[in-house]
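Memo to structure team: turn this sequence into structure tokens by end of day. - J.P.
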Amino acid sequence: PISDLGNVQSPDGVEGIGRVHSAVKGLLGKHKLLIALGGDNSITYSVASGLWPDLSNVGLITFDAHHDLRDGHSNGSPVWELIQAGLPGKNIVQIGIADFSNSPQYAERARELGITVIHRSELRGASLEQVWKRAVEIAGSRIHVDFDMDICDRSVVPACPAAAPGGISADEIRQFAFLAGASKEVVSVDITEIDAAKDSSDERTIRLAALVVLEVTAGLSTRI
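Reply from structure team:
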């Protein structure tokens, strides 16, 4: 059965991170899969670090236009914060990184850390199943997946402030969501970077995020 575990009030800042940690502690012993809904991308750090105090044997797959390797604590820093907390760079795969959306210093930081980067351009014409299989092989047997919705083309996610023209399609992110749900290695997922107040009148961003949730759960139902 699917359970709604409620909301975390004011999840930002040091105190907010503590509230997220308290909310997710021990959940993996009770549930096959956790889906966390944002909010901005900073919850990727608080959720993953709350689920695993020891990150040394954890993998991370991000679907994101950006590296999120900034210093500090913000929606642009969760991957860097997880690395600082002990997540090995070699266990990280970043899918959909966009050209013209990242500074050279963060691309260089990703290389230095041993992060596997699959650029947006590499997805064109590629088998999404093969891309996903490669990502899982690198990330390992306990994986958190970050669906930052600004990976998508801006036309389908107008409520994602950092989305740009040329991102992946709604159908592509739905396919990846199903694959994530179907993979036994994936034990937690987050869906982030949506400002619902900026959505279009037809609520296409929110609808797509809801479909990502449904695709993940549909994939989960196929696990043996």
